[in-house]
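Handout, section B. The chain below has 64 residues.
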Amino acid sequence: MSIQTHIDSLSEKRNQIKEQIAAEVAHPSPNFETITNLKKQNLILKEEIQRYLTMLHKNVAATS
């Protein structure tokens, strides 16, 4: 799997988590523990995407 493909996959997972957060917040009595856990997962994915983007840019710079 290429780095870009992995980044795209992580981005899709992140979008799904954002949708889950929005759905939970929209409930009449949202579960804040669930929201907190989803936000933590979202942050972990964001940081992982950033790491892969850094690797991708380093690889592009090295081949130029």
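Note. The radius of gyration is 15 Å. Compare this with the example in section A.
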